[in-house]
């Protein structure tokens, strides 16, 4: 498939720039041809072959344009120019300079307008790609390497710019150059032009043989680049673990294996690209050489063409080589760019399985209850939840406990529609969450996760993630509730302090309190706490737990916890085992049962 057509769909909003580009390219190509044609009268003056014409010639029709221009210049020099041959030479030189000047002015204007189209397409592709990336479901990224996605949004998009979008500058300009040049060449000699055209299909066939393998080779290069970018991203994320386990050499070897494969594929690609230019140039010169032989015979033996016209014809023929070579390189660019465009369009065309249904409605503020009804779900083949049901009335706190892999976090993922249930339903106030808009659903929910996900920006921006119009007073109030103001107020720039990549300028407890402040400012009626204190030291846990208790007041809370000491005051504790409810009740009731929960409490108290 030619993905160039898919990319060109992005050109629709910029059609006016395309029209202006075509208009000025027509003028450019016309004046480029006229510039070469104007060399005939100059050569006639130099070789003293200017026709002496005393009567202004009549217009003979477009097919005799070149003869008309030659006769007109002969008449003009004969009757209108005083001062002899030197003055005539100055006149024709001035004409040549003016025509070349106009050609270059129109060429610049064509490039000026195509820049708006080319860069506008590139911007829109990047914007659509980013929008698609943030809207695709979480499940998409469990199957894709992050580095591969990064490679598609960076190097692949750049390749589209360097191949497809650069072709936009040539797609009209160079064919027009060839057409106008051929028109004037036909006016000089039909026989010589037809002879030259016989060799073009042969040259085109030989050039196409090189281009066929470029797409396949380019695809290998882009794929391997995605692999080593993934390795780099994983290395930066896990640098402490790598150093702690002395695994630098092992990871370095893995990275070297990837870059070695990339190097091999890139060399093969560059060799094929490198062969393209000399091949097309040699074939062009070969055609010129044959033309010199054939045309020379027409001048010297047959006297079928004038010498000055033959020189001009050869200039036209050589002039065709540049646009022809540019078009052959452009065809290589299409082959190479197809591989990148395919990878970019794969993301853009990926169907988002978790999206608003037709007729989805917005739900008002949460009023009564969340109900999980007979839900079954699996990430792969083995079900993580099996016929799971749970009622969560408004204003209650529900704690989910159990061993790792028992399905606790899956419930949070399903409630927020990061994943969709396979069987059963989840309802809010009686409405199936699949029948409401994602925005209105997620407006009801605030999340605090085990990993404090912060961005390389200011504290204010991180806390006000859900409301870019939040005031400084609202941010500070949220920080106070989250027990975070005590350290933020001492920072050099307060809430406007940049916290570094992933908040690495802060401690674990500080980062978690900022995450809680973010949930506070959102002020959603449902709060999900997913292992919010499990990675903290005792002092940080105390501060964070105190902040959480403040946040949970008057909210419906779903608490996923390993540390059972943090959920003893929950209204309902659900003990999970292999995707099913093993026990549920209050802390006191579960202890009295002396079952699974009692055993877990006993293990943690040791």
UniProtKB/TrEMBL annotation:
All copies of domain ABC transporter, residue ranges: 370-603
Main location: membrane
Membrane topology type: Multi-pass membrane protein
Ranges where the ABC transmembrane type-1 domain occurs: 72-336
SUPFAM superfamilies on file: ABC transporter transmembrane region (SSF90123), P-loop containing nucleoside triphosphate hydrolases (SSF52540)
A Pfam family per the record: ABC_membrane
Gene3D superfamilies in alphabetical order: ABC transporter type 1, transmembrane domain, P-loop containing nucleotide triphosphate hydrolases
TM annotation in the entry: 20-40, 88-117, 170-188, 194-211, 282-301
Keyword terms: ATP-binding, Membrane, Nucleotide-binding, Transmembrane, Transmembrane helix
Protein name per the record: ABC transporter ATP-binding protein
Organism this protein belongs to: Nonlabens mediterrranea
């Amino acid at each position: 498939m030619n993905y160039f057509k898919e990319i060109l769909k992005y050109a629709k909003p910029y059609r006016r720039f395309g029209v202006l580009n075509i208009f000025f390219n027509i003028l450019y190509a016309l004046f480029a041809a006229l510039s070469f044609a104007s060399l005939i009268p100059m050569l006639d003056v130099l070789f003293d072959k200017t026709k002496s014409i005393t009567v202004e010639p009549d217009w003979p029709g477009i097919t005799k344009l070149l003869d008309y221009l030659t006769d007109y210049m002969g008449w003009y020099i004969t009757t209108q120019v005083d001062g002899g041959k030197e003055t005539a030479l100055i006149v024709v030189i001035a004409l040549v300079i003016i025509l070349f000047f106009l050609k270059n002015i129109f060429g610049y204007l064509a490039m000026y307008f195509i820049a708006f189209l080319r860069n506008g397409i590139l911007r829109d592709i990047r914007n659509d790609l980013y929008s698609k990336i943030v809207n695709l479901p979480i499940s998409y990224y469990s199957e894709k390497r992050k580095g591969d996605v990064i490679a598609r949004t960076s190097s692949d998009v750049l390749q589209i710019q360097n191949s497809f979008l650069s072709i936009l500058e040539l797609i009209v300009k160079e064919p027009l150059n060839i057409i106008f040049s051929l028109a004037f060449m036909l006016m000089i000699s039909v026989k010589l032009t037809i002879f030259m055209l016989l060799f073009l299909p042969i040259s085109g066939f030989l050039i196409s043989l090189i281009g066929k393998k470029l797409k396949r080779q380019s695809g290998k290069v882009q794929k391997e680049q995605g692999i080593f970018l993934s390795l780099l991203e994983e290395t930066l994320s896990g640098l402490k673990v790598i150093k702690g386990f002395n695994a630098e050499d092992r990871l370095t070897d893995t990275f070297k294996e990837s870059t070695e494969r990339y190097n091999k594929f890139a060399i093969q690609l560059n060799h094929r690209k490198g062969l393209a230019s000399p091949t097309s140039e040699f074939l062009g010169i070969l055609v010129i050489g044959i033309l010199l032989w054939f045309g020379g015979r027409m001048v010297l033996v047959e006297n079928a063409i004038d010498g000055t016209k033959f020189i001009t014809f050869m200039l036209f023929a050589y002039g065709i080589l540049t646009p022809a070579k540019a078009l052959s390189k452009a065809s290589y660019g299409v082959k190479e760019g197809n591989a990148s465009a395919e990878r970019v369009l794969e993301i853009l065309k990926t169907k988002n399985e978790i999206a608003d249904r037709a007729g989805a409605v917005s739900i008002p503020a949460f009023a009564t209850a969340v109900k999980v009804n007979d839900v079954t779900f699996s990430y792969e083949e083995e079900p993580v939840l099996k016929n799971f049901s749970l009622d969560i009335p408004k204003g209650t706190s529900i704690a989910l406990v159990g061993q790792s892999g028992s399905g606790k976090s899956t419930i949070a993922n399903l409630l927020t529609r990061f994943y969709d249930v396979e069987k059963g339903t989840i309802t809010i106030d009686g409405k199936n969450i699949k029948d409401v808009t994602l925005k209105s659903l997620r407006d009801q929910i605030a999340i605090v996760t085990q990993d404090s996900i912060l961005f390389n920006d200011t504290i204010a921006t991180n806390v006000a993630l859900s409301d870019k119009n939040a005031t400084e007073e609202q941010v500070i109030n949220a920080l106070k509730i989250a027990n975070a103001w005590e350290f933020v107020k001492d920072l050099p720039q307060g809430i406007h302090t940049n916290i570094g990549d992933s908040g690495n300028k802060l401690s674990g407890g500080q980062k978690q309190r900022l995450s809680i402040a973010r949930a506070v400012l959102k002020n959603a009626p449902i709060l999900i706490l997913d292992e919010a204190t499990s990675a903290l030291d005792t002092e940080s846990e105390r501060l964070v737990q105190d902040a959480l208790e403040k946040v949970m007041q008057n909210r419906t809370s779903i608490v996923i916890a390993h540390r059972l000491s943090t959920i003893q005051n929950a209204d309902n504790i659900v003990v999970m085992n292999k995707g099913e409810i093993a026990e549920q009740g209050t802390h006191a009731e579960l202890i009295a049962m002396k079952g699974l929960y009692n055993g877990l409490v006993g293990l943690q108290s040791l």
